[in-house]
């Protein structure tokens, strides 16, 4: 072994030197050169850093650099994330997306163009005018539909979600809700008044009967009892027949 090479290394190195750092790694670790100023130092990592991809060989596992426009990659020719200003498409980093695709600035990918989709129209609503369905001959009816798929940035815009058209109905009078309500209120008040009147009359009748009964009882208590008239025959003195 070279005098500058040591086998008692730390940090996952199998062999190392004081000047170049790790020279080889322990099993399953990746060897990568890190630049520090003008100097490159070998390190051993469990996974490759951003901008590198791992390759495994029988004698060594190494981290190799991705392409310049690629931030992370699976292999040198298959990028998984692009650097700023590029859009990912099929493992490649492009400045402009192909025809039929659009750039998604959120994911930084080229995606398919999505057009707007709307549901079927609903049935026409009843013919109305100023919110009423009576008291007119010509009015309007409406139908609506919903958006089931909103478009992407370059997709076709959504159509109108409501339509209206003129309609003709057979004229009919509206029931005067206010008058009907007033009549019902008057009937209710009258019914309550009649019930109250009957209740008062019954109360007066009961009070009058009670007063008459009390008056008779008082009269019976205050009037003197009539004495029984004496019998004339009893008042006659006995006749002395002896003389």
Automatic annotation (TrEMBL):
Keyword Zinc: no
Pfam families named in the record: Furin-like_2 (PF15913), TSP1_spondin (PF19028)
GO biological process, one term: positive regulation of non-canonical Wnt signaling pathway
InterPro entries in UniProt: Furin_repeat (IPR006212), Growth_fac_rcpt_cys_sf (IPR009030), R-spondin (IPR051514), Rspo_Fu-CRD_dom (IPR043601), TSP1_rpt (IPR000884), TSP1_rpt_sf (IPR036383), TSP1_spondin_dom (IPR044004)
Superkingdom of source: Eukaryota
GO cellular component: extracellular region
Domain Spondin-like TSP1: 116-170
UniProt keywords, alphabetically: Disulfide bond, Glycoprotein, Heparin-binding, Repeat, Secreted, Sensory transduction, Signal, Wnt signaling pathway
Residue stretches of biased makeup (Basic and acidic residues): 175-219
Keyword Disulfide bond among UniProt keywords: yes
Localization annotation: Secreted
Coiled-coil residue spans: none
Main location: secreted
Region spans: Disordered: 169-243
GO molecular-function terms, A-Z: heparin binding; signaling receptor binding
Domain R-spondin Fu-CRD: 11-110
Its biological purpose: Activator of the canonical Wnt signaling pathway by acting as a ligand for LGR4-6 receptors, which acts as a key regulator of angiogenesis. Upon binding to LGR4-6 (LGR4, LGR5 or LGR6), LGR4-6 associate with phosphorylated LRP6 and frizzled receptors that are activated by extracellular Wnt receptors, triggering the canonical Wnt signaling pathway to increase expression of target genes. Also regulates the canonical Wnt/beta-catenin-dependent pathway and non-canonical Wnt signaling by acting as an inhibitor of ZNRF3, an important regulator of the Wnt signaling pathway.
Quaternary structure note: Interacts with the extracellular domain of FZD8 and LRP6. It however does not form a ternary complex with FZD8 and LRP6. Interacts with WNT1. Binds heparin. Interacts with LGR4, LGR5 and LGR6.
Protein family according to the UniProt entry: Belongs to the R-spondin family.
Record's protein name: R-spondin-3
Source organism per UniProt: Dromas ardeola
Name of the encoding gene: Rspo3
């Amino acid at each position: 072994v070279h005098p500058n090479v040591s086998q008692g290394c730390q940090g996952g190195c199998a062999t190392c030197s004081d000047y170049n750092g790790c020279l080889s790694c322990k099993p399953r670790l990746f060897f990568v050169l890190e630049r520090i100023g003008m100097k490159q130092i070998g390190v051993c990592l469990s996974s490759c850093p951003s901008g590198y991809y791992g390759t495994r060989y029988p004698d060594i596992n190494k981290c190799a650099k991705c392409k310049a426009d690629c931030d992370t990659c699976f292999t040198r020719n298959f990028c998984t994330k692009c650097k700023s200003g590029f859009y990912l498409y099929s493992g490649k980093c492009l400045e402009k997306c192909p025809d039929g695709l659009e750039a998604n600035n959120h994911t930084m990918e080229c995606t398919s163009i999505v057009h707007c989709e709307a549901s079927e129209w609903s049935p026409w609503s009843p013919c109305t005018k100023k919110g009423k369905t009576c008291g007119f001959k010509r009015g309007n009816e409406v139908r609506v539909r919903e958006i089931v798929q909103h478009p992407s940035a370059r997709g076709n815009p959504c159509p109108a979600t409501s339509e209206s058209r003129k309609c003709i109905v057979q004229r009919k009078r509206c029931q005067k809700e206010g008058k009907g309500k007033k009549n019902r209120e008057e009937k209710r008040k009258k019914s309550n008044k009649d019930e109250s009147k009957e209740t008062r009359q019954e109360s007066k009748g009961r009070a009058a009967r009670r007063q008459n009964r009390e008056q008779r009882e008082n009269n019976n208590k205050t009037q003197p009892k009539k004495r029984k008239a004496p019998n004339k025959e009893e008042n006659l003195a006995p006749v002395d027949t002896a003389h």
